[in-house]
Write a structure and sequence with these properties.
By secondary structure, the protein is α/β, with parallel strands linked by helices. It contains 22 helices and 28 strands. About 55% of the residues are buried.
Length: about 650
């Protein structure tokens, strides 16, 4: 049994003593009200993480200038005394479980849009637009804050800190990272002012320094003040780690100003994949930033970024690379990560796979955060505590993919008599194929956790058996759950049955040799582009043909950006959009573009990656066998994502 001595030793940030060195960093869940208040959903979400054993929770972005400073649709606020009671209830719910809690004070600056600020124009250190927000569909152009407005903004941060203390928070964190307003003042790529708040390094630092010194003056030397910032913005002309005006210098200056801890992050919206890393990034890749800064300051330094395993967290602390470990999306996926690590059950941790469904695919699109690994996220008030079944039923779950496994696991835990039927010799379903895509090895963690839980909890599994109506009738279950997945969609095209035509699953599984060097991939969605990347990595010349206006429209925007701007170009994959394949022959494909122009693309092989179609032959069979309670789950209901499949299973198992 691993012993994580350093991870679970008490430690201090200023005068604030923590029971361990694990910090939950701020991550916006979009659980606030439409007018900036704390909600019961939010309280339940954070209370579950506190219950899981984390030492410190830093509440997500809290607006100091509402609504002008909002960065998302349902952001909470502390710019008015009316918000204090709700924030106090939140702080108390976290304190109940022995965790400390700090609130992050935030202003979006230029990184927002008018639909979130009630029509107010975004503001910034100057009028330089954010490259990300400047582009369609946002088209946002900020205005520069006046000198008097900057001084007023300093006061807004100080006033919000005072309200934080009144609400019972243990401290505050100033959000100077990720290209928001404070970071804009510090960045040489953005701050082109020529007054006291811009110019050289000293003047660019004046804004955050005045905020910290003002809070110190208002609340005294013992009130903890933390500072989060991007030690490297990974953007031309922006903050870099080294140098007289870089991330190290910023850390030293803020330490001199009186902050109690440096929370070292990186990236801005224009370098989005470095601040919310997609799946292909290595675990702990940015620890070096905190390590380098720790060498130069005497105050505690916290590191963050794709830290998934307690073994890695312990190693970072043992090597002296950081004083605290921030585990963010990790605690979304498994709020009990600390407790499992401390009690010798690290192998049971439900690890985050960095799919970015939580924020990239949800919060950025005005939806509430959820999680591929953990269907309970955002539903803690109703789902975190399973209710025992009023009457135990005999449940037949057909299909051992993510939907079927989740349904079987939860139904069994509720006391039902569950048997999971899988036609193959192994569980996992489509997960087994998805994990073969380049950069997607972490999908194996989905299957590993689900199969482990199936085994640990003693769920009965029948392998290698194809179920039909007779099987269902013989079993005589009370409930049938059909989770039989999906199959590749094969279009009716001339030449589709040629020897030079392959299915995407044959590419990823390598079940067939893809001969020739020049390949066309039909379909520019996630499956098609991942096949193209895989083939390019094998040395093929690949062209993707997509009917829609762009490629990868079914992928979260952060991973999509990584593929479109980095991975696919590096692999020399090309693509044609608004183009349809009309015919396949031995020498290539006939295509037609959006203007009706036909042309011929020469190629040696064609890969069909046009999505999937549901496989659901057993719903009718179950009813015919006399079963009245039938559920269709996951891709069998409609081809979607892992998060949808696991939700279906989690929901259905709670309904019976």
């Amino acid at each position: 049994m691993a012993v994580f001595q350093r991870l679970f030793e008490p430690a201090c940030i200023g005068k604030m003593q923590l029971k361990n060195r694990i910090i939950m960093p701020p991550m916006e869940p979009n659980y606030g009200s439409a007018t900036g208040e704390v909600t019961e959903q939010m309280i339940n979400y954070y209370a579950e993480r506190a219950k899981g054993g984390v030492g410190l929770i830093i509440i997500h972005i809290t607006c100091v200038d509402y609504p002008a400073g909002k960065a998302v649709s349902n952001q909470i606020s502390l710019d008015n005394d009316k918000y204090v009671p709700g924030m106090a209830r939140l702080a108390k719910a976290i304190h109940n479980w022995g965790a400390k809690v700090v609130v992050q004070l935030h202003h979006a600056g230029r990184q927002t849009k008018k639909r979130w600020t009630d029509g107010l124009n975004p503001v910034g250190a100057d009028s330089t637009p954010c490259p990300f927000m400047q582009e369609a569909p946002f088209n946002e152009q900020p205005r520069a804050l006046s000198y008097d407005e900057v001084q007023g903004m300093v006061d807004k941060f100080i006033d919000a800190a005072e309200r934080s203390a009144a609400a019972g928070f243990d401290g505050v964190q100033i959000h100077g990272a990720h290209g928001y307003l404070v970071g804009q003042f510090m960045s040489p790529a953005v701050n082109k002012r020529n007054d006291r708040y811009g110019g050289d390094f000293h003047r660019r630092m004046r804004f955050p320094v005045e905020i910290v010194t003002g809070i110190r003056k208002k609340l005294g030397p013992d009130f903890p003040v933390l500072f989060r910032y991007s030690a490297d913005e990974f953007y031309p002309g922006g903050i870099t780690l080294e140098g007289d005006e870089g991330g190290i210098a910023i850390g030293k200056r803020m330490a001199e100003a009186g902050v109690d801890c440096l929370n070292v992050s990186c990236g801005i919206y224009a370098s989005m994949t470095t601040l919310l890393e997609p799946m292909m990034y290595n675990e702990g890749w940015r620890v070096y930033l905190a390590e380098r800064i720790k060498q130069e300051v005497s105050i505690p330094v916290a590191t963050v970024g794709v830290i998934r395993r307690p073994e890695m967290a312990e190693e970072i602390l043992t090597k002296g690379q950081a004083d605290f470990i921030e585990v963010g999306r990790t605690l979304i996926a498994d709020p009990h990560w600390p407790h499992k690590a401390r009690t010798g059950r690290a192998e049971e941790i439900n690890k985050c796979i960095s799919c970015n469904n939580c924020i990239g695919a949800k919060v950025f699109f005005m939806q509430e955060m959820d999680c591929t690994q953990n269907p309970e996220v955002g539903r803690e008030g109703k789902w975190a505590q399973l209710k025992e079944a009023i009457k135990a039923k005999k449940v037949m779950v057909i299909g051992g993919g993510p939907a079927g496994m989740e349904a079987a696991r939860v139904a069994h835990l509720r006391g039902h008599d569950v048997t999971l039927w899988e036609k193959e010799s192994d569980l996992g379903g489509q997960l087994n194929l998805a994990a073969l895509s380049p950069g997607k090895e972490k999908i194996n963690w989905v299957k590993e956790w689900q199969t482990q839980q199936i085994s640990i909890n003693g769920v009965k599994v029948v392998y290698g058996k194809t179920v039909d109506e007779a099987t269902i009738k013989a079993e005589n279950p009370d409930v049938v759950m059909v989770a039989t997945g999906a199959a590749p969609f094969i279009p009716d095209l001339p030449g589709i049955e040629g020897s030079n035509v392959f299915l995407y699953k044959e590419v990823l599984s390598k079940s067939k040799e893809i001969t020739g060097s020049n390949i066309v991939v039909a379909g520019g969605g996630m499956i098609g582009c991942e096949c193209a990347w895989e083939l390019a990595n094998r040395g093929k010349s690949v062209t993707v043909v997509e009917m829609q206006d762009d490629i990868l429209l079914d992928m979260d925007p952060i991973t999509r950006a990584e593929l479109i701007y980095v991975r696919l170009p590096q692999a020399r994959v090309t693509w044609k959009i608004k183009t349809k394949i009309m015919e396949i022959n031995s020498g290539g494909v006939v295509v037609i573009d959006g203007y009706g122009n036909k042309s011929f693309l020469e190629c040696d092989g064609v890969v069909i990656a046009l999505g999937t179609t549901s496989v659901n032959k057993l719903e009718a069979a179950a009813y015919a066998a006399g079963v009245q309670d039938v559920y269709v789950l996951g891709d069998a209901r409609q081809p979607r994502k892992i998060v949808d499949a696991k939700y279906d299973g989690a929901w259905a198992a709670r309904e019976i």
